[in-house]
Structure formats: structure tokens, C-alpha cells
């Protein structure tokens, strides 16, 4: 996101924007006020979150995280697989350990 902002982009599209909008808003705000250290720190959080979601299967993980945020988006479409309960619990625990529920949803 930071690279796009530096190039003058005013918007973007991303699956994680649906549930981590506060995080991305902070990146934009920090960039706009010239606080690149804060923008980079939040960008690193975003990357870490996305990397963990890819470990579970990104499509299924996105649906699970939307559920964690209180939004039931229904089942995934084939050929994407729904996360099994133990994988969903592991994802939730890992996101919690990285502070996701503090910095992404608030």
C-alpha cells in the first residue's frame, strides 16, 4: 500500500480491506502526515497477517476472518475449501498472538 500511496494512488482493492480497514486507514493517515515509520510498521503488520492467512488457504481464511469480525459471508465457493474447525482455531490464535484483534478491527 505504501508504494501505491507514494506513486499518488488514491485508492486500492484488496480482500483484507474488508476486515482490516482500520489498519489500512492508519497506513494512509500516517503516510499523509509524513510519518513513514508508523506507516511502515502498520504495513509490516498487514504483510504478517496476509502471510499467515495464506498458510491456511487465503480464500477460506478470508471467510473465517470475516466471521471473526462478526460478518457471516456464507460458505466459500468451490474449488476453495472452507477451513476445518482446527485450522480456523489455529488461525484465530495466531492472529490474536500478533495483536490482530487490537490493531485490525479497532
Architecture blueprint of SSEs:
Layout: H1 2-6, H2 21-32, H3 36-56, H4 58-68, H5 85-97, H6 100-103
Notes on the protein architecture:
- With 106 residues, the protein is mainly α.
- It has one domain.
- The protein is 62% helix and 0% strand.
- The chain has helices at 2-6, 21-32, 36-56, 58-68, 85-97, 100-103.
- α3 (36-56) packs across α4 (58-68) and α3 (36-56) runs antiparallel to α5 (85-97).
- The longest helix has 21 residues, at 36-56.
- The protein is elongated, with a radius of gyration of 14 Å.
- The chain starts with a helix and ends with a helix.
- The model has no long low-confidence stretch (mean pLDDT 95).
Largest β-sheet summary: none
Low-confidence stretches: none
Helix content: 55-70%
Our measurement of the CA-to-CA distance between the termini, rounded to an integer number of angstroms, reads: 19 Å
Features:
single chain; mainly alpha; 106 residues
Structure in a nutshell:
Helix content is 62%, strand content 0%.
Amino acid at each position: 500500500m505504501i508504494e501505491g500511496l507514494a506513486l499518488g494512488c488514491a485508492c486500492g482493492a484488496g480482500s483484507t480491506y474488508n476486515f482490516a480497514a482500520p489498519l489500512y486507514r492508519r497506513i494512509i493517515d500516517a503516510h499523509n502526515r509524513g510519518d513513514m515509520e508508523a506507516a511502515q510498521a502498520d504495513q509490516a503488520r498487514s504483510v504478517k497477517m496476509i502471510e499467515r492467512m495464506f498458510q491456511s488457504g487465503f480464500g477460506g481464511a478470508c471467510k473465517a476472518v470475516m466471521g471473526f469480525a462478526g460478518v457471516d459471508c456464507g460458505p466459500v465457493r468451490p474449488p476453495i475449501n472452507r477451513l476445518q474447525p482446527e485450522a480456523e482455531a489455529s488461525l484465530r490464535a495466531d492472529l490474536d498472538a500478533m495483536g490482530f484483534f487490537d490493531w485490525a478491527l479497532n
